[in-house]
Design goal:
about 210 residues, 7-stranded mixed β-sheet
Length: about 210
């Protein structure tokens, strides 16, 4: 048993009890192929929540600050996360993300860039990094939405993870890449995550 599998089993049992974790539509995740898992971002724990809720390993790009927290840094690396400097150059992290995609793996990104609470997805700014990685890695994307009470993780309060239908690379409006195409795909990603939000809240956000 690998360290990743051992940690996932341990955390899955813990989170299902402590955070009443419920995963929706996990079967929609393809058994193989390269995809960018894109999600809203409400907490530092989002990486762990998505890592244990997905049947395949997700390689996450996570902010560098998290890797300075003793214990959490080792846990994140064991789960496949790699750091990105939000205030400096992201070139190295992007190259790592594309390399993982070229290996037919999943990478996980939070297009909002930083945690966003008490806002509907549609009212937040999305960055184009996920669209860039999808183009360079010839990957599709899997929209994901995390719902918690008050958009915070609280002990014994329910946490729901919604996985949407994957959008394959050949369905994305790419021809030669570039900022306009990245923006268009980013808007598509935002729309698909927003649809999951609407489903989670019965048509109207009330987080």
């Amino acid at each position: 048993m690998t360290l990743y599998i051992a940690l996932k089993k341990l955390l899955t049992g813990l989170f299902k009890v402590v955070y009443n974790l419920k995963v929706h539509n996990a079967d929609s995740i393809p058994e193989n192929g390269r995809y960018v898992v894109v999600s809203n971002h409400i907490s530092m724990g989002d990486v762990l929540i998505l890592a244990i809720s997905c049947k395949r390993q997700i390689y996450f790009m996570a902010k560098r600050e998290l890797f300075s927290i003793p214990g959490l840094a080792q846990l994140l690396r064991a789960l496949g996360a790699f750091p990105v400097d939000r205030h400096g150059s992201a070139v190295s992290a992007l190259k790592t993300a594309v390399k993982r995609l070229e290996e037919d793996k999943l990478i996980g990104l939070f297009p909002q860039g930083t945690r966003q609470r008490n806002k509907s997805v549609i009212d937040t700014e999305f960055k184009t990094g996920a669209a860039f990685c999808a183009f360079k890695g010839k990957a599709g994307f899997i929209p994901t939405y995390i719902k918690t009470e008050g958009q915070r993780f609280r002990i014994f309060k329910r946490c729901d993870i919604y996985y949407g239908k994957p959008v394959d690379f050949d369905k994305l409006p790419y021809t030669e890449g570039g900022s306009d195409e990245y923006k268009a795909v980013t808007e598509q990603i935002k729309t698909e995550i927003f649809k999951l939000e609407e489903n989670a809240y019965g048509g109207k956000y009330n987080g």
